[in-house]
């Protein structure tokens, strides 16, 4: 007979999902009410306001898509990109490639701006692409590339889009609540994220926000949006600001309880404090890794504090190390993707998982496993280096 599933207590320090706060898990267990219940509608309004705070925007069209970040991505593309459009797509990792797929499935042309994995998006290449393709009406890029741990200059890229009369579509799945993100100040037009990274919520919801310029394009479309479920004009009948909500789909009520709680926690901490916490823990982790003799895969000025790409030492078996960390220490870190598979580890310090306790625990476990694997490292050096950073020495 099949029995109930009880997972072990893992420490999730990979590229996502991240550790979920007990407060958020507790919110999930609250009584389910109807998705049109007046009390739930009130909660929806609170979630919208809290998301506006997280995104730093006053956009009216701000809401959580009832599906993971990939659906948020698709919502931005299917609503803004029409057949025959030209879209400049930046790729410096896995997720730029997914943007290209979305453009092509919308019947549009993707003009690729490619940079090496581990490098940020080149502003000069984007400017040249606009010069070569003045018909382009959209620029799509990833702010924080989860596959490489690289941050690109979202503010400058959004400015390039505006200067060329194009809208910007911005992937902030890993950046939201982890590093600075100012949707209104930067003039970003369509921005999507996920709940399972720096928000420390459960997977399965995608916060999105659309500027007024983006809304005007949606409203002026000549063709129907190819996805009924993700058509923003339909979804806003449910998520709009009026007291009367039109039924569109059955919202994941308990999941939205969890999102609300995670956003309340973010508001309590304050965005700036959350950014400082991520940076502090990142620098301590890097200090410990480098003291151990490991090297980082991304230049310091472009690193994401919440997603740390580490070069795997020569002669060390990637899968053996990750398996030992998981089985012996209940610690999950991520493998490299694409051309970086077997060459890097991705260590997440996202949201609730970004803590001094996790930094020190990860360094201890990694040192123990690498020593057992016979790696050439500086044993017993990592913890003192990280602790010195935490104590301000």
Automatic annotation (TrEMBL):
<protein>
    <submittedName>
        <fullName>Alanine--glyoxylate aminotransferase family protein</fullName>
    </submittedName>
</protein>
<dbReference type="GO" id="GO:0008483">
    <property type="term" value="F:transaminase activity"/>
</dbReference>
<dbReference type="InterPro" id="IPR024169">
    <property type="entry name" value="SP_NH2Trfase/AEP_transaminase"/>
</dbReference>
<dbReference type="InterPro" id="IPR015424">
    <property type="entry name" value="PyrdxlP-dep_Trfase"/>
</dbReference>
<dbReference type="InterPro" id="IPR000192">
    <property type="entry name" value="Aminotrans_V_dom"/>
</dbReference>
<comment type="similarity">
    <text>Belongs to the class-V pyridoxal-phosphate-dependent aminotransferase family.</text>
</comment>
<dbReference type="InterPro" id="IPR015421">
    <property type="entry name" value="PyrdxlP-dep_Trfase_major"/>
</dbReference>
<keyword id="KW-0032">Aminotransferase</keyword>
<dbReference type="InterPro" id="IPR015422">
    <property type="entry name" value="PyrdxlP-dep_Trfase_small"/>
</dbReference>
<dbReference type="Pfam" id="PF00266">
    <property type="entry name" value="Aminotran_5"/>
</dbReference>
<keyword id="KW-0808">Transferase</keyword>
<keyword id="KW-0663">Pyridoxal phosphate</keyword>
<feature type="domain" description="Aminotransferase class V">
    <location>
        <begin position="34"/>
        <end position="336"/>
    </location>
</feature>
